[in-house]
Write a structure and sequence with these properties.
With 60 residues, the protein is mostly helical. The chain has one domain. The chain contains 2 helices and no strands. It is globular, with a radius of gyration of 14 Å.
């Protein structure tokens, strides 16, 4: 079980590092908006919402 815990911690760290790098690529206004969204999700709890993944090649 502890080995799985370390794997989860590593994956979370990599995901957070990637999110920070991508957020820093945004312009000031978009960065502020996205950070506000993340703050709301953290405050409200992650079980109520979907997770937003930012892609370099958005398909929207």
């Amino acid at each position: 079980m502890q080995e799985n815990s370390k794997d989860y911690e590593f994956c979370i760290k990599v995901a957070l590092d990637n999110a920070k790098k991508r957020i820093n690529l945004l312009n000031s206004f978009d960065r502020k908006c996205l950070l506000e969204e993340y703050k709301e999700w953290i405050k409200d709890g992650s079980t109520k919402h979907s997770v937003l993944l930012i892609r370099e090649d958005p398909i929207i």
